[in-house]
Amino acid sequence: MKWLLSFLVLSSTAQVFADDSRAAILTAPDPRYFVFFLIPLGVLLLWSGRRIRTAAEFYASGRDNGGIRNGLAITGDYLSAASFLGIAGMIALSGYHGLLYAVGFFAGWPLILVLFAERLRRLGRFTLTDILAVRLQRSAVARVAMAASVPVVVLYLAAQLVAAGHLAAYLFSLPYIGSVVVIGIMTALLGIAGGLLFSTRAQVVKAVVMLLTTLLLVIMGLLQADVDITTLFASDHKQQPLLLATSALQEQGALSQLSLGVALLFGTAGLPHVLTRFFSVADPRRARMSVFYATGFIGGFYLLTFVVGYAALRLLDLHPEMNISVANNGGNLVALQLALGVGGPILTGLLAAVLFVVLISVMTALLLSGASAISHDWYAVTVNPGRSYYKQRFIHSSSVVGLILFATLVAILMRGQNVAYIVGLAFAIAASVSFPLLTLALYWKGLTTRGAVIGGGLSLFVVLLCIVFGPAIWVDGFGFSEPIFAWSNPALLSVTIGFVAIVYFSLSDRSELGANERQQEFSQLD
Amino acid sequence: MQTVDSESSSLISQHPDYAAWVAGQRLYRRRMAAVLGGSYAVFLLSVVFLPCILLTPVSVSNPTPWLVPFAAFFILLQFLLTGIYVKHANTVGDEEHERMRSECLRLNNASKSAAVKS
């Protein structure tokens, strides 16, 4: 690493003094360096982690981990390359609300630890279906959980595809749609083949590589962007002349901003699977310590994204030929532009390779999670319990293809959007359906199957309607001049509807089943 | 994956201090959730309603807007609160639970031995 750092610093220092060559370097990444770093990274990850095929193998892989090691593995699970690219771009495009994204994505994490982690651990259930089925009817809640998780998976997948598509298009000078389709096919094939569910060791490697690469980018950004730390965050940028006043989110008013804040906080809390590796450690004390370390690593990572976003902005001020919006409307490439500016094609290749590997691993994990929700939680449990193995495999593979097709279409529709913004929409769905269901299932005895199904379904319908008729799809995707639903994120409305509807339809449940469900005791949750 | 052993759990639940311990743990978690959620609410409401203050430079010589140290402070605060929660759960919570468990097991073993002797 020391050798690599010295090499990169020397190579980029040479570029700073060679202004003539720099202009060319700034606009033309070299894909050979990407391939050069991609191969060893792929080999390293495959070497560091054997493929995990079953839940038992997964839990066994984490059982004896120490706090820091498991904390890094949790960080590897949690960190998203798409969010990194998106947040850096959001900060560069709209510094003010970019920071809201960075803080919001982080803030949900400690909250789920306090609200849910201990209860879920004592309950011994970790998926939404399993948690709801402790007291409610499995077949009915499996449909709600499946309906809630599939749109989240599709939007989250679309966000990763947008990031990967722009990354590949930028590196190889390919058309965006072609890049997205090729990456989509590649991900589907990996998903059908069984995906890349990484062991704890491979997630540790992933987290370390991503943290170190970001740190390297920040150090070189600070060294090379001709600014000191006190002036880095100043709001006098040429490419962002009215830092606050022109922000689209600001124009939509206070409720729209509050809505985004709600989505970012409760969206994370609506995704209980992010805690999976917390449950894989046998000793509860070590498990808690690992979450503490993970909080430090994740928080540190988001602090680094502040610097990446502002350093990119500062560098791009010095080089107007590298216009943010011309490279990418959503600002999704500013981190790579910064890497190109301060580290040349070598650092760009390294960063792109790290991000690409992380993107592919997240996409295949998402695909498997979505396909399992359809083929196992829904089809095998509720539609055809006596299915054959081959029939279920067929449904699983069909789900993989269906999900990636749908996500590819959404990624094409949202090509001009910032990736963090798309992730924010996925979080809005999780916050509106999964979070109320999870909270009420764990904290309220009055929840009934009727309340969960009708209330959860209504909330899902409202949030999807608001997203489709909102600015991202109705205006930017379909080309209409005005959105029918004005807020860019509907969570404030849909989360409220979710809680109210689930409580109302549970309280108004007069059935015998409802009465029985209310009488069932929570046991050993505290 | 570790879940609570049902025999051990039902034993502990008979301990005279168990109900108070459960209530204390629940209260602590809810207070901590309120502090975490409340601090986020303060951050969010400040970003939404106080942009004029948060965009003011820290000082004449340092043009960094207040928002940046405010956001960084918020992240550090959440990290610190997580640490406090983990320390509490790993010491006060677990040690008390362990004390009750060992007392219950000792009493249970003693009553079993007495039954065998009689």
Task: Give structural notes.
The complex is a heterodimer of chains A (526) and B (118). Helix content of chain A is 77%, strand content 0%. Chain A is mainly α and 526 residues long. Chain A has a single domain, classed as Sodium/glucose cotransporter. In chain A, helix 9 (138-172) packs parallel to helix 21, helix 10 (176-192) packs across helix 18 (334-383) and helix 14 packs across helix 23 (491-507). The model of chain A is unreliable at 1-25 and 238-246 (pLDDT under 50). Chain B has 118 residues and is an all-alpha fold. Chain B has a domain at 50-93. Chain B has helices at 6-12, 18-49, 51-54, 67-117. In chain B, helix 2 runs antiparallel to helix 4. At the A-B interface, helix 7, helix 12, helix 14 and helix 16 of A face helix 2 and helix 4 of B.
Question: Keywords for this structure?
Answer:
heterodimer, A: 526 residues, mainly alpha, Sodium/glucose cotransporter, 0% strand, globular, B: 118 residues, 4 helices, 80% helix, rod-shaped
Oligomer: heterodimer
Q: Kindly report how far apart the N and C termini of chain A lie.
A: 46 Å
Can you summarize the main beta sheet of chain A?
none
User: How many DSSP helices of chain A?
Assistant: 24
